[in-house]
Amino acid sequence: MAKRLGIIVAALAFATGAFAQHGTHPANVSGVWQMNVQGDHVLPIGMELKQDHAKVTGTILMPAHGSGRRREVPLAGELTDSALTLSGAADDTSADAATVEIAATLEKDGTMTGTLSVGTHSVRWTAERLNR
Fold first, then answer.
1. 76-104 pLDDT, tens per residue?
2. Fewer CB atoms inside 10 A, N or C side of the chain?
């Protein structure tokens, strides 16, 4: 009886450990984000992301140079562990401003930090999810 109880306890311990290891939730970046892009001054930019496993899609509202309006740029990329990479192309822009690339890290506190590259220009940014 004691031997059988020991085997059952060992099996439960193994199963619990395996469940805990596989039961962890992967990082999730879905939602609406307020990006604060740091240049000469802080520029707020909105970004909305949707995640399907590692695949991430969404849009970013990029300022249209000199017009005061914003241009919606579609994004696609992937999330690996806590590293996010996204890219997209803006329509109706010069070749220098056509490509948008985002590299980010999802921080433990739920915020993101990274770089935003547009053409040959690159800036640092931080972001906070608005719809928690």
1. 999 999 999 999 987 765 555 578 999 99
2. N
